Amino acid sequence: MSKYQLQLKPNPGQWLLYVDLEEIKSKSVIQVLTLLEQMGYDPQLRYLETDRGVKLYALLKEEQHEPTQSISDEHGFGELIALYEAFKDEDMAIRSSRGLPIKAPVTA
Predict the structure, then answer these.
(1) What is the spatial distance between Cα 64 and Cα 99, in angstroms, rounded to a whole number?
(2) Fewest CB within 10 angstroms: 22, 51, 71, 75, which?
(3) SS3 assignment, position 97
(4) How far is CA 73 from CA 4, 25, 77, 99, in A?
(5) Can you give the pLDDT at residue 37?
(6) Residues near 37 by beta carbon (within 8 Å), at least 6 away in sequence
């Protein structure tokens, strides 16, 4: 996988926060990126090839946590709310995904 491709299924302990640029209808891509920068993010453009063509995303955060531990449901909650408010009526474009933890082996 290229470093520019978006990984939709995060690795164990990985947290991704990104914006699906195709879902934003009221602003141009440059307007979205500028707004994200004003919010303090350094958006990184990522793509994903699908049967319907190429999709474009703005990756905002890619964090690695302990792979054997679950990431809290509250992690990034404040950021999500701020993004939902910044992109009212287009909140389906805001994506947050967490990698499931590695299951520890069961010892007998």
Answers:
(1) 9
(2) 51
(3) strand
(4) 27, 29, 8, 12
(5) 97
(6) 43
CB atoms within 10 A of CB 43: 20
Q: Are 13 and 64 in contact (CB under 8 A)?
A: yes
3-state secondary structure 27-74: CCHHHHHHHHHHCCCCCEEEEEEECCEEEEEEEEEEEECCCCCCCCCC
Rounded CA separation 59/6 (Å)? 8
Domain ranges within the chain, ordered by starting residue:
14-98
pTM for the model: 0.87
- pLDDT digits 0-9 by tens, 34-77: 999 999 999 999 999 989 899 999 999 998 888 888 888 888 89
Bridge partner list, 98: 15
